[in-house]
Design a protein that fits this description.
The protein is α/β, with parallel strands linked by helices. It folds into 2 domains: 163 residues, 3-Layer(aba) Sandwich (Rossmann fold), CATH 3.40.50.300; 80 residues, no CATH class. Helix content is 38%, strand content 23%. Strands 6-7-8-3-9-10 form a 6-stranded mixed β-sheet, with helices on both faces. α7 links the parallel β7 and β8. α5 crosses α6. It starts with a strand and ends with a helix. The relative contact order is 0.19.
């Protein structure tokens, strides 16, 4: 498990503040959701925390260690993994090969050993494939084990991307709109999978627009509006907050 602290995080693009002075703490082993209307700064916030963007101001801590400004691969080595709003799947590979790619950090890829085809490296590949096979079953995709990614339905690809992220053995997992574009049955599958991951000890932080799903699975919810923290609390606290209702529906509503 991992504890995340975000302190006064700010990102300016020219004269525009995409994220402004946002602070929050994610305790270990929970599902923590970030919501807000379009343009609220949710994905920018994710990108700042996961190393795709450098903050203008502020600090990110993982288990009391400052990780602000570290590159994504450095954060991955510390136990942080993420998925993206748009699928980042290698369509010319099989499903299990995609998951194996996510486990590359745990395999010794020393160039000299690779050139000599050391048996230990071949054994590591077998271990990696076995682990990928287990993860495919874990996310409910064992039927697609040898399928080409390009032949899989969209809902299955969403779970495949989560399996690949889990292959890196994260302690904290960031999911950017995992239910986007899914039908109700597929959304329910993602819902159960996220809860299963958190119950297994991985802290989950997600951005999501499906409010039914958010209210169903979240232990804590952060609401952003125009780059600023609007409120934070439990699902029941956020659901009844008049400022949240106004931000989503307009003050007249």
């Amino acid at each position: 498990m991992a504890r995340l602290e975000v302190r006064n995080l700010t990102k300016a693009f020219g004269g525009v503040l995409a994220v402004e002075d946002v602070s929050f703490t994610v305790e270990t082993g929970i599902v923590y959701s970030v919501i807000g209307p379009n343009g609220a700064g949710k994905t920018t916030l994710f990108n700042l925390i996961t190393g795709l963007l450098a903050p203008s101001v502020g600090e990110v801590r993982l288990d009391d260690q400052v990780v602000t400004g570290l590159a994504p691969h450095q954060l991955a080595a510390k136990g942080m993994a993420r998925t993206f709003q748009n699928l980042q799947i290698c369509m010319n590979m099989t499903a299990v090969e995609n998951v194996m790619v996510g486990g590359h950090l745990s395999v010794d890829r020393n160039l000299f050993r690779s050139m000599l085809h050391f048996p230990s490296l071949r054994r590591a590949d077998v271990v990696l494939r076995d682990r990928a096979t287990e993860l495919m079953a874990y996310v409910g995709l064992d039927a697609y084990l040898q399928s080409e990614a390009s032949a899989m339905p969209y809902g299955a690809l969403k779970r495949l991307e989560i399996a690949r992220a889990l292959a890196a053995k994260p302690r904290i997992l960031f999911l950017d709109e995992p239910a986007a574009g899914l039908n109700p049955r597929e959304t329910a599958e993602i819902d159960r999978l996220i809860r299963k991951i958190a119950d297994g000890g991985v802290t989950v932080v997600l951005v999501e627009h499906d409010m039914k799903m958010v209210m169903n699975i979240s232990d804590r919810i952060l609401v952003l509006n125009s780059g600023k923290k609007l409120t934070e609390g439990s699902a029941s606290e956020v659901r009844g907050n008049p400022d949240v209702i106004a931000a989503y529906l307009g003050k007249a509503a």
